[in-house]
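SAMPLE LOG
Freezer: B-3
Tube label: C17
Construct: single chain, 569 aa
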Amino acid sequence: MTAIGLAQIAIVLAAAIAAAIPLGAFVARVLAGERTFLSRFLGPVERLFYRLSGVDPAREQSWFVYTIAMLAFSVAGFLSLYALQRFQNALPLNPQGFDPVAPDLAFNTSISFVTNTNWQNYAGETTMSHLIQMLGLTVHNFVSAATGLAMAFALVRGFARAESPTVGNFWVDLTRSTLYVLLPLAIVVALALVALGVPQTLEASVEATTLEGAKQVISIGPVASQEAIKELGTNGGGFFNANSAHPFENPNAFSNMLEIWAILVIPFAAAFAFGRTVFDFRQGRAVAVTMLIVLVAGVIVAYWAEANGNPLLTAIGVDPSPGNMEGKEVRFGVATSALFAAATTGTSTGAVDSMHDSFTPLGGLVPLFNMLMGSIAPGGVGAGLYGFLVLAVIAVFVAGLMVGRTPEYLGKKIEAREMKLAMLAVLVYPLSVLGFSAASVLLQSALASLNNSGPHGLSEVLYAFASTTDNNGSAFAGLSGNTLWYNTTLGLAMAFGRFAYVIPVLAMAGSFAAKKKAPASVGTFPTHGPLFVGLLLGVIAILYLLQYFPALALGPVVEHFLLQAGKTF
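STRUCTURE (predicted):
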């Protein structure tokens, strides 16, 4: 670990937080329907959308109607994206002449992009036409992220309102999140990426002459526009198979730092927007600080593990001074590769600028554990915030048990109904991850997809189902997922992770919105200071270590001790 590496990490994190504070205030105003500096230009466009779709922006919805609208929109998105892939050869903007996508892969990809997972069991540059990359995948990069932000603020309104039968209007939240937040930011970041060398063209490929004099055909296309929203929307689906490790997606150290910034800025902004919406900035700050502590802890562990190098490579004469460079780009180095890995799995992004499969066992443990926690530090666009607020409810309930008092959060009493819904939500992840992983390691055809046996092979399976259930989308890259078993089970894991989790959350939103708001008293547990941050960190550690420690012990922990002994399984 070097001072320069730590400085790079600090600069990116500081830039993200500095931008997130004013952006959070802006997001809060947008989702409250207040006028902003963009209203003059985008207000007429927003009103036109409502007229064309027959939406009354003043008419709000109960949590149940809000949920049905979200599910209907997701089903429509799934069916349309599936149809685009199955009829790809009959559609325009297919200069490569790609054939239709196989049914099981089209199923997996459609669920993947609708749920904001963006898991890819295919190589984008050799599978999807320009039309599908733009009209299918990039569009869902916008609307799936906007859906997450909408659902988060349905829950936030539940805390902010009192005796209200409604939590907002899904169609309005979806439109405003896309039009005012995601689209303007994506345009700015896309232009910056083009300036840094990322292609943006409708051409299919270019031909290059290699140093040996041979001819090489290199795929290109509308890369910068997809890259920008891929990171800003915490999507992660790359135009190229190598994702952000590809020089056309991520050409240099400056583009790398910009992409990490883009991954982090909206999730942190959502936490600050939460504070603004409940009229107590300190509440949002406490959530953001807790997120930052978890993120920084992961970055430091990953950086330390990778900087120490690989003992097996050192034993055969590889210079250990640069750290473990296997699977990493020389233009990025160990420090920002560790930061990218922690940021992309601390959010539900899933983009990669290095191969997580090549990390040391403890270095790879960080992105794996980030996803097992639900990518809550700082989480996906919207999804991180509502995931963190569920944990905040559990933490306050634990505090109430300690002092023998009915727990409250932001003036709302937490009773049996809310706790049942919270626990129903948090149990979705371990049931999906551990259940599908157990089935996969017992099925011989599923084991045939692994490139490794033993602890590392188990980590590959765990990582795949953690990534898809968590709607992250990154991969250990040692698992060949384009099979009927994995396309189906990983697709189901994505659906469970998104919808089975968020339906109880939206029910909580309706329950909290209908409650009276009790004024704070001397006995009220403060949820804006260091004590609450510490309690929240403790609940996170205990909850997820209890759920996943046996699986982690059999995977990366065992592999670490084998590696230190100079052995492999």
